[in-house]
Design a protein that fits this description.
By secondary structure, this protein is α+β, with helices and mostly antiparallel strands. It has seven helices and four strands. It has a four-stranded antiparallel β-sheet. Helix 5 runs antiparallel to helix 6. The longest helix has 38 residues.
Length: 199
């Protein structure tokens, strides 16, 4: 799952034309490679047209924007968690961009990244320990039942409940990275998007 953000009126002073391909027709590897090459060139020129982020990167980015820019109303904040076409107007997009540049300039974003990533690394180490505990438990269940390659769903109820208890000791935030570069890329997109949709 990912988040695709589309600029509603992207800044395009050179009138660059976005390449298109009819995916219903058979295409060769060369044609696909050429299409994606031209698409990358277009997106590099028209930076407000499209911003992509998988869910792992989007969640902390959206949290940072909502918490620290002061540009997202409380009633809109939750809608940033869904890819259902929520619209952010041009004025708000530019305000978000301006505030992100200020936060980056002041060193706030870098400090946040350092503290956030430090905590995330601790969570990753914790999750590694949980993973080892899960593997050890699974092996013990397999030995007890005299079977191998069992999925937890096939465990007896008491064992499945114990597997669930161990699994839920994991810290999910370990999977969600944050970086200044990602924030910069988003700020640039916002600035030139003309407003955008979160899809």
């Amino acid at each position: 799952m990912g988040f695709d953000l589309y600029g509603m009126n992207p800044y395009n002073p050179n009138k660059a034309v976005k390449p298109k391909m009819d995916w219903d027709k058979p295409t060769t590897d060369e044609e696909r490679d050429e299409h994606f090459k031209k698409l990358t060139e277009y997106e590099n020129e028209v930076v407000g047209d499209y911003f992509r982020s998988n869910v792992w990167w989007w969640r902390p980015l959206a949290h940072y924007v909502i918490k620290f820019t002061g540009c997202v109303d409380d009633e809109d904040a939750e809608r940033w968690s869904y890819n259902e076409g929520h619209e952010v107007d041009d004025e708000t997009a530019k305000a978000i961009s301006n505030q992100l540049y200020v936060l980056i300039e002041k060193g706030h974003t870098k400090k946040f990244e350092e503290e956030y990533e430090k905590e995330r690394k601790i969570s990753e180490k914790h999750n590694d320990k949980v993973e080892k505990e899960l593997k050890k438990f699974c092996k013990s269940v397999e030995r007890k039942l005299g079977k191998t390659n069992l999925a937890p769903a096939d465990f007896p109820k008491a064992d499945h409940d114990e597997w669930e208890r161990i699994y839920h000791k994991r810290i999910n935030d370990a999977s969600y990275p944050f970086s200044v570069d990602h924030v910069k890329e988003f700020a640039e997109f916002c600035k030139y998007s003309g407003g955008f949709k979160i899809c």
